[in-house]
Amino acid sequence: MKNSQFPVARKNGLVVQEMPDEVLVYDLDTNKAHCLNQTAAMVWKSCDGNNTVSDIANLFEAQMGENVNEDFVWLAIDQLNENNLLEQEMKSNFEGQSRREVIKKIGLATMIGIPVIASLVAPPNALATASCACVTPGACPVQTGCPNLNNCNPAGICAPN
Amino acid sequence: MHLANEFRFRSYGVTIGIESNRDDVLSKAVAVVRKSLLDRLEIVENQQVDHYFGITLDDAGIFTLYQNGERNTEGESERNFFKFFGSIIRLTVAEYAESRVFVHAGVVGWKGQAIVLPARSFQGKTTLVAELVRNGAAYYSDEYAIFDENGMVHSFPRMLAMRGIEDEYIQTDVSVDSLGGAAGTAPIPVGMVLITEFHEGALWQPQALSDGEGVMEMIPHTIPIRFNPEFSLKVLKRIVNRAIIAKSPRNDAKEFSKILLNFFDNTLV
User: Is residue A155 located within the same domain as residue A79?
Assistant: First the structure.
C-alpha cells in the first residue's frame, strides 16, 4: 500500500482543545464535535503536508516505540476524511478491504490503540437541549428530547395529553 | 414593531428588551422574567439591547410572542404562554451569557464539591436532585449548572420543578426548604459529573470516562455550544480536568441518592 500523497490537516474553521491523551475538535462549519483518541490525534498532527502516509507510520514508530504499518495510518486518514478534517480528501487505500477487516487485522498486529474518532452534532438550537414548554405544537419538533414531538398538551408541555 | 410599553434589563451580561401593547401584559411579563431569572437582573434604560421580545394581547384574547421581530408563538392560555415565555427568556440568557457556560443539568453541593448531573428533560434530574437534597446535599439547581471560566459552578436555586405530583408531565414548584434542605450560595469546584438515566431495575455500574469522552457527553447539554464553542470547550475542559466523569444507568432516585453520596465519599472526599 504505497502512497505518495501528502495529507494536510485542516486548520481553518476549527476550534481545537488539547486534552491529556485526546484532541477535541469543533467544526464551526458543521457544528460537529470530534474527539480524536491519542493515535488518531497523532496521525492528524503529523499531516503537515510534508509527510507521506509511509512517513507518518515511521514517525509513529519513533514516537511510540511501536511498529505500525500503513494500514494503521490509513485507518486514521479514512476517518479524518470522513469528518472533513483534512484540507483535501484522500482516496482510501484499503485495496478492497472494509474498515472492519482492517481494524481486525491491525488490532491483532499492534499493542497500541487503533485510531478512533468519535463525533456528534451539537444540538441545533438551545430549545432542543432544555425545556419542553410549548404554546402550540409548532414548538415541539425542535425539542428533540421531549416525550412527544408533535403534541403540545393542555399543560403546555410537548407530551401526550 | 414598536409597542408602547417597554422594559429593558441585563442579566448575566445579556441585554433584553420586552415590549407590549398593554400595561397589564407587560407587568405580567416582567414578573415572569424576574421569577425565571431569580431576579438576577438590572434594569437598563435608554440602551441598545441584544434581544427583543414583543408580547401582544388582542381583543380575541390571543397572546402573541415576537422574538427579535419575528413571530415565535401564539395562544389563548395565559398560563402556558407565560410559562413558555419564561423558558425562552432563561434559554436566551443561558445561550448568550457573558463569561458563563450554562449546562442543562441538576447540581448539588456535597462536602464542598459539586455533583453535576447533565440530562435532557424528563430524565428524572429534578427527582434525583430532590433526593440528594433530602439526604443533606446543598441545592444548587435542578435546571442549569452555571460555570465560570475557571470551571467553578454557581448556584441557580430556583424552586424545584417536580413532576409526578399532579401528573407525570405537569411541573409543580417545590421549595428547597420543604425538602428539609438549603440552597448553596458560594461557587464550588466540580467533584463529579455523572451521566445517568433512570432505567427500571438498573444497577449502579459506574464507568469512568476519559476527559475527551466526558466533554463529548456534556456537549449535547451545553446551551452556548453553537454560539460560543471556543469558550464553552475551554470551560468544559477545565471541568473534566478536575472532576471524575462517570456514566451509569440508575434505579429509583431514593435508593440511588444514597449510593451516589457513598460513592462520592469513598472516591472523592
Answer: no
Q: What angle do CA B231, B70, B16 make, to 5 degrees?
A: 50
Neighboring chain B residues of A139 at a CB cutoff of 8 Å: 73, 84
* Nearest-10 crossing angle of helices B253-268, B125-134: 70
Q: Residue A150's domain spans which residues?
A: 123-161
Over range B233-252, report the average pLDDT: 96
Cell of residue B59, nine digits: 381583543
CATH number for the domain harbouring residue B191: 3.40.50.300
**B145 and B163 co-located in one domain:** yes
Q: Is A142 on the interface with B (CB under 8 A)?
A: no
- Please state the domain count of chain A: 2
- One domain, residues B259 and B135: yes
Statement to judge: residues A87 and A150 lie in one domain = no
Q: Is B260 exposed, middle or buried (0-12, 13-18, 19+ CB in 10 A)?
A: buried
ipTM: 0.89
Under an 8 A CB cutoff, do A146 and B83 touch? no
Cβ–Cβ contact B88 with A under 8 A: yes
pLDDT tens sequence across A7-57: 999 999 999 999 989 999 999 999 999 999 999 999 999 999 999 999 999
Chain B within 8 Å of A21 (Cβ-Cβ)?
Answer: yes
Q: CATH number of the domain that A47 lies in?
A: 3.90.930
Q: Does A156 touch chain B (CB under 8 A)?
A: yes
Statement to judge: residues A95 and A153 lie in one domain: no
Tens-digit pLDDT profile for residues B88-106: 999 999 999 999 999 999 9
Q: Work out the minimum CA distance from A45 to partner chain B, whole angstroms.
A: 17
Q: Least CB-CB distance to A22: which of B80, B95, B211?
A: B211
Min Cα separation A149/chain B (Å): 13
CB contact under 8 A, A21 and B87: no
Chain A residues in contact with B88 by the CB 8 A cut-off are 127, 133
Residue B218 structural domain: 101-268
User: In Å, how far is B15's CA from the nearest CA of chain A?
Assistant: 18
**B174 and B55 in one domain?**
no
Residue A4 predicted with pLDDT over 60: no
A9 domain-assigned: no
Q: Specify burial of residue A12 (Cβ count, 10 A radius: 0-12, 13-18, 19+).
A: exposed
